[in-house]
Amino acid sequence: MDTLAIVILNYNGQSFLAKFLPTVIAHAEGHPIYVADSASTDGSVAFVRANFPAIRLIELPYNGGYAGGYNMALDHIRTHYGGATYYVLPNSDIEVTPGWISPVLSLLEVNPHIAACQPKILSYSERTMFEHAGAAGGFVDWLGYVFCRGRVFATFEADHGQYDNNRSIFWATGACLFIRSDLFHRVGGFDTSFFAHMEEIDLCWRLQRLGYEIWACGQSTVYHVGGGTLHKSNPHKTYLNYRNSLFMLYKNWPADGWLWGKLLLRLIMDGVSSLLFLKVGQWRDVLAIIRAHFAFYGQLPQLHKQRKLLLSQQKKAVSLYPKSIVWAYFVKGKKTFNAME
């Protein structure tokens, strides 16, 4: 069994593979690299075979999104290659840096209670700024809204070393997720109904319910292009984010009797955000939010079964950020993570 498997999921990302695979190879620190291709149509498979013969190529039968694709790929690695103690899942549009692996592995190895961890995620185009997808570690507020050290809503901080410490967080980004393989498979991997977006937050929430911790490692840095597969302006991304946020909230919210009250508040606040989209003429995003809510209602029977199972398995209460980041950000004017602590 390998100590670490570097696993890159690819869907029509040949240009990113050409740009970033050489750097991953240069800084792999001796660990095997896999490219799991989700039935790409842009020649990615032939490109990897021709240009990177040392890469272990996995051809998936269809595009199952981030969640389904990684579940299939990691099951294949476990079955056909003997598995690995840890997985790291960098997006295809991630540029790694020298020494990006060792600090995270050291943190995982010294503390067996850490299930998953992430490096600092900086912007590839603005290299001193934190990037949207995870920044320096994520959190969830009492209404299920997510935010990060280094990024709250549309405010991005410059990296001045303010988040260089190693610390526990609520969720580690799927843009470059390190995770213990035994725990990944033990909890069933990602929830494939999410397809893409927020599946890593759902996974981190489930791992914490079993008593494990999620951390950020400030001594490791990577750079992320962002939106490589699905651009942030795409209404389908809006749909997935709103729908999956509701999926995650319903499945994982503590059994405190406030679930439906929280969902009602979310419905109202999502309606307000729809009006903001409408104000700037983004009516397709408004339709995406409406579709997201109806998809959530249609999935409620299955979500309820998942919720009951998770509650029956829970070993530890999970603490969320106890206030509203919407109130803190838009009303009180607190724009950074440190201002909210």
Automatic annotation (TrEMBL):
Keyword Glycosyltransferase set for record: yes
GO molecular function, one term: glycosyltransferase activity
A UniProt-annotated Pfam family: Glycos_transf_2
Residues covered by the Glycosyltransferase 2-like domain: 6-133
Keyword terms, alphabetized: Glycosyltransferase, Transferase
Family statement drawn from the similarity comment of this UniProt entry: Belongs to the glycosyltransferase 2 family.
The name this protein goes by in its record: Glycosyltransferase family 2 protein
Protein's organism: Spirosoma terrae
